[in-house]
Amino acid sequence: MTWNVTLNGKANKQAEKMPMAVRFALQTLMDEIAIKGSVRGDWPNYSKLSEGRHHCHLKKGKPTYVAVWTAEKKTVRVEIIYVGTHEKAPY
Hints:
This protein is of the alpha+beta class.
């Protein structure tokens, strides 16, 4: 079963401004979610924030970059709603 992974408009704009290495990590995360599902316990600092909402670190250090996504299991759909520094993340 393949998951449909998308970036919302805000996350897409944020991703364009990130360093290339972080964008590569984001694309890798999206590819893994599409193949393995929305629960990514093998990513650094992964946690389930609430029902259907998850986050993990894309890059540690200063600044730390994170991704936050929502998952709809009934429709096998994942939407990444935030990518950027952890200070502004919608936890």
